[in-house]
């Protein structure tokens, strides 16, 4: 979808309607619960953080939402469309044009054998761009936006540092102008100073592009900085959700209290 069409689609969505509505989402692995009874709404331009200990169901939920696996029960509505009832072709189109997915490991979201410029340009071609000069100019612009020097455009990501690879993955994901971005621990595995820079960059892009984001993380500092709202998961279920500051400063559930206090002790 072109930029004008996206703007038209955005204008056509009633303001009061959430961009994404999730209702009673469940996914089991045999007898084990992956996630159960998850419901929430997210509006345009809103950032939702999902936190919880290892095994609490964060990744299962994110992959069900992004269409990487099929939930056993529940409903996902995106801009008024029933996502689970869509044909595979329509869902793929949605993933390519309206959605983006930032993996924790940039290797999972990049093509390591293709140049940095190619990684970004390829996404534009996937949504119909054909003019080589324009594609290269857009790729060049996006490398600049994620603070990668222009003279690295023909380098492969394998020659980049971890932080640069992650910034390149972000450029590759955002170049097509998605409205909803799924992020799985985007700052995981990076040095603290690199994390801080990446978070700053992400915050600016999210604000400038008015993105809706669902971000899974172990790190409460990440949600404090990025997320408007927070959802706390334990054993596959949502135990608490609300405005980020409210949940972190005045946690109601004993598990959230534990999560917050264990971070404060570090
Ligand atoms: N492919 C799978 N097969 C069987 N069980 C699984 C599978 N993936 C996840 N699970 C189980 O589902 C539950 C939720 O796991 P999930 O990976 O979603 O948690 P998480 O919060 O993302 O954990 P982490 O932070 O460690 O990634 C766990 O009990 C896990 O063992």
UniProtKB/TrEMBL annotation:
Keyword Lipid biosynthesis: no
InterPro entries reported for this sequence: AAA+_ATPase, ABC_transporter-like_ATP-bd, ABC_transporter-like_CS, P-loop_NTPase, PhnK
PROSITE patterns on file: ABC_TRANSPORTER_1, ABC_TRANSPORTER_2
Database matches in Pfam families: ABC_tran
Any GO MF annotation of the entry: lyase activity
Residues annotated as domain ABC transporter: 20-260
Signal peptide (UniProt feature, chain positions): none
Keywords recorded for this protein, A-Z: ATP-binding, Lyase, Nucleotide-binding
Domain of life: Bacteria
CDD domains: ABC_NikE_OppD_transporters (cd03257)
Coiled coil segments of this chain: none
GO biological process: organic phosphonate catabolic process
Stored NCBIfam families: CP_lyasePhnK (TIGR02323)
Protein name per its UniProtKB record: Phosphonate C-P lyase system protein PhnK
Species of origin: Gemmobacter aquaticus
